[in-house]
């Protein structure tokens, strides 16, 4: 099991709702609060589930998810950092920061596949606020030659809030792309509508990365992998609890569903799972990447509420 500091162990002993447990190779924070239940893996600071009492889950986690060290679980909210997607599809000055070569770099950066430290837990009758932190290490410096500190704060209650703070602790300018890659559940993918997407500018990864305008509100009748040049808010009509996804400091959002053919090649994902999920990812990508001077910080945040 991942070790936690003695001060956090003491804090955990006094918690009423929050407990650590081991699932296969990963350490997971399990929160059972009177108004919701949630799970967060320390690896990747990945929120795995969130379910208000008497409601269906707001977040989708693959039934085939594997709790293994060094690989992100399929579902929840993976944190893509310090680059989003395929490294060399990022702006060139960002990709060139990646060592030894962006062409051999893993997709969506490294933050989702390594253990974060649990720093703080605050429990009340209304919510639970958890803070996890990731600092640079000899391993991260080999790939990403910058000193940095990441802090992710989850505020869980009647709403689900995630705030990711990046601090550039190096002496150099650091450029990042990033995303809170939220997987949402749906009753039937054909009936999903993402409102407030009509007439927005999109860059379509499946159409040569061309930039066009979306006609009607986004639905799914085939594979979708596109970047909206807006941070929302979006109203998600899913056949389950309708939700609103709001962002702060994001001007790009990725909408994704792998559909039939891509599903067959996806890890931790049975062939038919594309029918029950879709992603709306709160991002800073393309021209919305963030350039941080030494000691500068930036925040990327989302809030999910009932619509
Ligand atoms: C999305 C990308 O954000 O993540 C897709 O736009 C990608 O292109 C998907 O396939 C899943 O990525 P991964 O690395 O978690 O399988």
Say how many strands there are.
Answer: 21
Structural class: mainly beta
Q: Extract low-pLDDT stretches.
A: none
Strand content: 35-45%
Question: What does the main sheet amount to?
Answer: 8 strands, antiparallel
Question: Element order, helices and strands?
Answer: HEEEEEHEEHEEEEEEEEEEEHEEE
Radius of gyration: 19 Å
Helix content: under 10%
Q: Whole-number average pLDDT?
A: 97
Going across the biggest sheet, name each strand in turn: 6-7-8-9-21-17-16-12
Topology:
Blueprint: H1 6-13, E1 18-23, E2 26-33, E3 36-41, E4 46-52, E5 79-80, H2 92-95, E6 117-123, E7 128-135, H3 138-143, E8 148-156, E9 160-168, E10 174-176, E11 178-185, E12 193-195, E13 201-204, E14 210-213, E15 224-228, E16 234-237, E17 243-248, E18 252-257, H4 259-263, E19 277-284, E20 290-292, E21 297-306
Antiparallel strand pairs: 1-2, 2-3, 3-4, 5-11, 6-7, 7-8, 8-9, 9-21, 10-20, 11-19, 12-16, 13-14, 13-15, 15-18, 16-17, 17-21, 18-19
The structure holds 6-O-phosphono-beta-D-glucopyranose.
6-O-phosphono-beta-D-glucopyranose binds at residues 85, 107-108, 181, 225, 254, 256, 281.
Compact overview of the structure:
This protein is mostly beta strands and 307 residues long. Helix content is 7%, strand content 41%.
Textual characterization of the structure:
The chain is mainly beta and 307 residues long. Helix content is 7%, strand content 41%. It is built from four helices and 21 strands. The strands form four sheets. Strands 6-7-8-9-21-17-16-12 form an eight-stranded antiparallel sheet. A seven-stranded antiparallel sheet has the order 5-11-19-18-15-13-14, with no helix packed on it. A hairpin with a 4-residue loop joins β3 (36-41) and β4 (46-52). The longest helix has 8 residues, at 6-13. The radius of gyration is 19 Å and the shape is globular. The model has no long low-confidence stretch (mean pLDDT 97). 6-O-phosphono-beta-D-glucopyranose binds next to β18. Residues 85, 107-108, 181, 225, 254, 256, 281 line the site of 6-O-phosphono-beta-D-glucopyranose.
């Amino acid at each position: 099991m991942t070790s936690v500091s003695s001060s956090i162990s003491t804090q955990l002993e006094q918690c009423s709702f929050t407990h650590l447990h081991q699932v296969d190779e990963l350490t997971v924070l399990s929160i059972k609060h009177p108004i919701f239940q949630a799970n967060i893996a320390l690896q990747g600071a990945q929120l795995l589930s969130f379910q208000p009492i008497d409601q269906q889950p707001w977040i989708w986690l693959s039934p085939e998810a594997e709790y293994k060290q060094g690989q992100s679980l399929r579902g929840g909210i993976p944190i893509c950092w310090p680059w989003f997607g395929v490294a060399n599809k990022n702006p060139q000055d960002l990709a060139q920061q990646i060592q030894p070569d962006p062409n051999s770099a893993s997709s969506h950066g490294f933050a989702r596949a390594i253990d974060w430290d649990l720093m703080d837990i605050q429990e009340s009758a209304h919510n639970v606020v958890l803070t996890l932190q990731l600092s640079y290490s000899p391993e991260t410096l080999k790939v990403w030659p910058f000193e940095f500190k990441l802090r992710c704060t989850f505020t869980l209650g009647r709403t689900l809030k995630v705030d990711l703070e990046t601090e550039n602790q190096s002496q150099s300018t650091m450029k990042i792309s990033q995303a809170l890659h939220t997987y949402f559940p749906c009753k039937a993918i054909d009936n999903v509508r993402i409102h407030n997407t009509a007439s927005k500018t999109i860059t379509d990864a499946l159409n040569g990365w061309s930039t066009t305008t979306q006609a009607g509100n986004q639905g799914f009748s085939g594979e979708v992998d596109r970047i909206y040049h807006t941070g929302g808010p979006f109203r998600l009509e899913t056949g389950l609890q309708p939700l609103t996804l709001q962002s702060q400091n994001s001007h790009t959002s990725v909408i994704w569903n792998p559909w039939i053919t891509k599903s067959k090649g996806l890890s931790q994902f049975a062939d038919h799972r594309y029918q029950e999920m879709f992603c709306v990812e709160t991002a800073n990508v393309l021209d919305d990447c963030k350039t941080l001077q030494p000691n500068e910080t930036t925040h990327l945040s989302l809030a999910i509420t009932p619509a």
